[in-house]
C-alpha cells in the first residue's frame, strides 16, 4: 500500500528532501530566519524594493481607497481602475502595443502557452527553461521538443524537421533562473522569422535588471527594434519587489488571451493594493537608475572575488550566481554551515538542476553593502576550503 512516508524517506536518503524556512522579518539585505539574523543572499528582490517606504505608502493608500480584495475575476466585476493603470504603465514601459496582467509568473506561463498552442502544434523549448513553461507546454497538448541549453545549432536542426505541424513556437527564458546566463535572443528571433514561429520570452529575471532603463533583455542586447515579433512575459515579483506578472504584445494577442486563457479567466484579480504597489515600483525604476547601477557594482565586486578564490560559477552574466557544489548532500552541508555562520543561501538540487550540477544559488541585491558582501565572501572562502571545494 502506498504511503507518503516511504517516498519522503527516499528523498531524505538522497539528500533531496525539502523543508520550509520561516522568515520572521521583512525581506531585506539582513533578515531573521528561524529566529536567527542572517545576511540574505538568496532573494529575487534584486533592487531591494520589496520593503521600500514609497511602495508601502502606495499600498496603504490603495487599501484606504479600494479595500483589500477585488471580489471577483476581471471578466466578472474584478476589473478595477488600478489594474488598467498598471497595464497602461507596463505597455508604455515595454514599448508595446498592449499588456495583460496575470496573478503570478507561474499562472502567466501556463495561461499564455496553453491558450496559444494546441494539439497539432509544436513547441521548441530550451532545456533549462522554468518549470512553469514546461507545465504550460504540457497543458497545451502540443508536441514538445527540448533543445540543449542555448544550442542554436541543435534548435535549427529540429526546426528544419518540423514543417508538418500546424503552428510552431519557440519559448525561452531570457535570463535563466538557475544559471544566471542570458539566452541568445538575436539568433532565436532570426529563427522565429525564418521558420515562421511564434516567439515567447520569459523576462522574469530580466525586468528591472537588464538594460539601461531596466526594460529587460531585448533592451540590454540592442534588440528592441525586433520587439513586435516577440511575445514578452515577465513578473512583478522580483526586481520590482511586488507580485503578479504580465504579457506584452499586440492588441489582438491581448484580446485573444482575455477570451481564451483559462488562467486569466477563472482567477480572482490581483488585490488593488498589490496593483498600486506594482505601479509605484515601475515609477521608481523608470525615474531613478541608481539602484540598478548599485546592483551591477555589487555583481562585479562579488564576481571578481569569487573567481579569484577559484569557485566554479559557470557562465553567469546577471545577479544570479551559481556556485557549483555537484552533490546534493555536500550542497546542503555547505548551506547549513553558511547559515550557522550568518549567511543564508539556499542549496539547489535535482530535479530543479541537472544531476551532478547541485549548487548554491547566490543572488545579489542593490541594498547589499560592500561590507555585507565581504562578510559573505570570507565565510564562503573558509567553508569552501573546509569542504575541499577550493
Give the SSE layout.
Blueprint: H1 4-13, E1 30-33, E2 36-40, H2 53-66, H3 81-93, E3 98-102, H4 105-116, E4 122-126, H5 131-140, E5 143-147, H6 152-160, E6 168-173, H7 185-194, E7 197-202, H8 217-220, E8 230-235, E9 245-249, H9 251-260, H10 262-265, H11 272-287, H12 290-309, E10 320-326, H13 328-340, E11 343-344, E12 347-348, E13 358-363, H14 370-386
Parallel strand pairs: 2-11, 4-5, 4-6, 6-7, 7-8
Antiparallel strand pairs: 1-2, 3-9, 8-9, 10-13, 12-13
Cross-sheet strand order for the largest sheet: 3-9-8-7-6-4-5
Number of helical stretches of at least 4 residues:
14
Rg estimate, integer Å: 21 Å
How many DSSP-defined strands? 13
Provide the CATH architecture of the largest domain: 3-Layer(aba) Sandwich
CATH class of the largest domain: Alpha Beta
- CA distance, first residue to last residue: 46 Å
Shape: globular
CATH homologous superfamily title of the largest domain = Type I PLP-dependent aspartate aminotransferase-like (Major domain)
Amino acid at each position: 500500500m502506498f504511503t507518503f512516508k516511504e517516498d519522503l524517506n527516499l528523498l531524505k536518503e538522497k539528500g533531496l528532501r525539502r523543508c520550509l524556512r520561516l522568515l520572521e522579518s521583512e525581506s531585506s539585505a539582513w533578515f531573521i530566519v528561524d529566529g536567527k539574523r542572517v545576511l540574505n543572499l538568496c532573494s529575487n528582490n534584486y533592487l531591494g524594493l520589496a520593503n521600500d517606504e514609497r511602495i508601502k505608502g502606495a499600498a496603504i493608500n490603495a487599501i484606504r481607497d479600494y479595500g483589500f480584495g477585488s471580489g471577483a475575476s476581471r471578466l466578472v466585476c474584478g476589473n478595477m481602475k488600478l489594474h488598467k493603470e498598471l497595464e497602461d504603465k507596463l505597455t508604455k514601459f515595454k514599448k508595446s502595443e498592449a499588456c495583460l496582467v496575470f496573478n503570478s509568473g507561474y499562472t502567466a506561463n501556463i495561461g499564455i502557452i496553453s491558450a496559444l498552442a494546441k494539439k497539432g502544434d509544436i513547441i521548441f523549448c530550451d532545456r533549462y527553461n522554468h518549470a512553469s513553461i514546461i507545465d504550460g507546454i504540457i497543458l497545451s497538448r502540443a508536441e514538445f521538443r527540448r533543445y540543449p541549453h542555448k544550442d542554436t545549432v541543435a534548435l535549427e536542426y529540429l526546426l528544419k524537421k518540423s514543417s508538418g505541424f500546424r503552428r510552431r513556437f519557440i519559448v525561452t527564458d531570457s535570463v535563466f533562473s538557475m544559471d544566471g546566463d542570458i539566452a541568445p535572443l538575436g539568433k532565436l528571433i532570426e529563427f522565429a522569422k525564418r521558420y515562421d514561429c511564434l516567439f515567447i520570452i520569459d523576462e522574469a529575471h530580466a525586468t528591472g535588471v537588464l538594460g539601461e532603463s531596466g526594460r529587460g533583455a531585448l533592451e540590454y542586447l540592442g534588440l528592441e527594434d525586433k520587439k513586435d515579433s516577440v511575445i514578452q512575459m515577465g513578473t512583478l515579483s522580483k526586481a520590482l519587489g511586488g507580485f503578479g506578472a504580465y504579457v506584452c504584445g499586440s492588441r489582438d494577442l491581448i484580446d485573444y488571451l482575455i477570451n481564451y486563457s483559462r488562467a486569466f479567466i477563472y482567477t480572482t484579480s490581483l488585490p488593488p493594493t498589490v496593483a498600486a504597489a506594482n505601479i509605484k515600483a515601475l515609477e521608481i525604476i523608470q525615474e531613478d537608475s541608481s539602484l540598478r547601477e548599485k546592483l551591477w557594482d555589487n555583481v562585479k565586486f562579488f564576481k571578481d572575488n569569487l573567481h579569484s578564490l577559484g569557485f566554479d560559477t559557470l557562465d553567469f552574466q546577471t545577479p544570479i550566481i551559481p556556485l557549483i557544489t555537484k552533490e546534493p548532500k555536500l550542497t546542503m552541508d555547505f548551506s547549513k554551515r553558511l547559515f550557522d555562520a550568518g549567511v543564508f543561501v539556499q542549496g539547489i538540487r535535482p530535479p530543479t538542476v541537472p544531476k551532478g550540477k547541485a549548487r548554491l544559488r547566490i543572488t545579489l541585491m542593490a541594498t547589499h553593502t560592500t561590507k555585507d558582501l565581504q562578510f559573505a565572501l570570507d565565510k564562503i572562502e573558509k567553508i569552501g576550503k573546509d569542504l575541499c571545494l577550493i
